[in-house]
Amino acid sequence: MRARLNNRSAVPDQQARRLGVALVCTALSAAVIGSVGAPLITAVATGMHVSLDAAQWTLTVTLFTGAIAGPVLGRLGSGPYRRATILATLALVTLGGALTVLPLPFEALLIGRGLQGLGVAVVALLMSVARTHLPPERSASTIAALSVASTVGIGVGYPVISLLNQLAGLRAAYWLGFVLSAAALVIAWRALPVEAPGPRPRIDVIGALLLGAGTLGVLLVIAEPALWADPLAGTGVLAAAAVILAAWVTIELRAAAPLVNLRLLGQGPVFRANLAMLIAGIGMYLLFSLLTRYVQTPEDAHYGFALPGVAAGAALIPFSLLGFVAGKIMPGLADRIAQRWTYAISVAAVIAAAALFAAATGSLVAVLTAMAILGFGVGGVSAVMPKLVLVDVPHAETASVLSINQIVRSIGFSMGSALAGFLLAAATPTETLLPALDGYIFAALWALPPLAASALIVAGKQRTNRPAPTASTS
Questions:
Q1: Per residue in 70-98, pLDDT tens?
Q2: In terms of Cα–Cα distance, which of 192, 164, 167, 193 is closest to 179?
Q3: What is the rounded CA–CA span in Å between residue 373 and residue 371?
Q4: Measured between alpha carbons, how far is 121 from 128 in angstroms, rounded to an integer?
Q5: CA separation, residue 68 to residues 11, 227, 234 (Å)
Q6: Long-range contacts of range 361-367, CB-CB < 8 Å, 24 or more positions apart?
Q7: Model confidence at 474: pLDDT above 80
Q8: What residues contact 41, with CB distance under 8 A and at least 6 apart?
Q9: Which positions ≥6 away from 55 have C-beta within 8 Å?
């Protein structure tokens, strides 16, 4: 039955529990949908007769649309239209899923994957629902679970999608994303509470266009290796993105109803949390990229384990299981020993995973253990980050602030992935296809400086959370 209660004190415990479960299931579905592209890149290239670079865009385009749409959806979802915004977004994700399963040209598949990327952006809105409509303790644990959903979704999605592709083909694998998106839409329609009446949110259209163009430019330079081959082109795109983002900042600071409250983002705790997320994202995804690539290294390299697609996907199950465990225990630990120390423990787990991998590359058990420890660290960082980034943030700005944090995380992950590719390419001898083993070890050690810097940033002086204004109806 659709919930119609609009404040925490009026939400019965059983109803709050159902709402929390529904929010997490919706976010988990979005995370699995977002991960659909990664195991299918080669299958798209061979099955649809396109280049690997073109097929890579079936993954990259979801990152782009999620990052660009995030702030707009965050602003739309900051008032009485939050439920409608979430449902409309999930309907577009479902439409995207339909385009991926129909026997249409490659261009239609790209459009579908772009629409599916909107599911990543909707997670911030789900967090704002939890913060507004759930009791404080359940709200904190639900937000942490929503943040960790992306980690769990990878481990669930990769092996299942790889197996479906192997058994039934490319379109059958994409069917999983379509079914999950339709299920998420139904769950959200039945569970999301109706919002209290309020003023219609104003969208800074110019600000949205500038932020979208600037973010696209930054992500394009990071994610498109072809631009690196031409320094002039890469520098030009990056310079144009910087100019656009500078113009966006100027307009946002002067706007009466800005897309993003930059003055709020500039506050010490919020700024430090986003900076830490950016830097930690580089280190975490650098190591994740190395591990997933290493276990699939062919036997010709005389290192690695030559795991086929399904087995390589199954290797991510420990990553997700430990990420889920971290999402369960870290919020409570943060309440007992302080958020910054919980964050430091999570980062230390990622550092330990990098060290274990570098020291024991010849043991499959050790590498899988490193993958599991990495999952615990990533899950811990994801679980505590909303607590860090929402310090002193009013309820009305929850979705907007979390949307920016999602962009920061996406950019950090993209930079980590790009750095992994660059370091391994640099370690690949001339006229060979595979990097030297030392290249993997050296690249893993590169993850340590950004991770340590991230922990130091968060370990700085932090203010404790103060209750957000209760007058807000968002």
A1: 888 888 877 788 999 999 999 999 999 99
A2: 164
A3: 6
A4: 12
A5: 34, 21, 20
A6: 361/294, 361/303, 361/437, 361/440, 361/441, 362/303, 364/295, 364/305, 367/291, 367/294, 367/295, 367/305
A7: no
A8: 52, 55, 56, 58, 59
A9: 41, 42, 44, 45, 48
pLDDT tens for 102-123 read 999 999 999 999 999 898 889 8
Q: State the amino acid at position 257 in one-letter form.
A: A
- Contact between residue 28 and residue 153 where contact means Cβ atoms under 8 Å apart: yes
Q: What is the mean pLDDT of the chain?
A: 86
pLDDT at 282 over 90: yes
Evaluate whether 42 touches 216 at the Cβ level (below 8 Å).
Answer: no
pLDDT of residue 466 exceeding 70:
no
Question: Among residues 235, 96, 233, 253, which one has the least CA distance to residue 174?
Answer: 96
The crossing angle, in degrees rounded to 10, of helices 205-223 and 52-76 is 150
Mark 171-203 as b/e (b = at least 16 C-beta within 10 Å): bebbbbbbebbbebbebbeebbbebeeeeebee
Distance CA 26, CA 40 (A): 23
The pLDDT, as a whole number, for residue 470 is 37
For residue 225, the model assigns a pLDDT of: 67
- Top-confidence residue, 408 or 66: 408
Rounded to two decimals, what is the model's pTM?
0.82
Q: Quick one: angle between helices 364-389 and 136-168, nearest 10?
A: 140
Q: pLDDT (tens digit, 9 = 90+) per residue, 369-416?
A: 999 999 999 999 999 999 999 988 888 888 888 888 988 988 888 788
Return the half-sphere exposure (C-beta side, CA atoms, 13 A cut-off) of residue 182.
9
Confidence label for 1 from pLDDT (cuts 50, 70 and 90) = very low
CB 465 within 8 A of CB 136: no
Tokens, residue 405: 């944090």
Please report, for residues 150, 326, 364, 408, 445, the alpha-carbon distance to residue 323 in angstroms, rounded to integers and kept in the order given. 9, 5, 20, 20, 22
What would the two tokens of residue 248 be? 């966006």
Measured from the Cβ of residue 206, the count of other Cβ atoms closer than 10 Å reads: 14
- DSSP assignment, residue 10? G
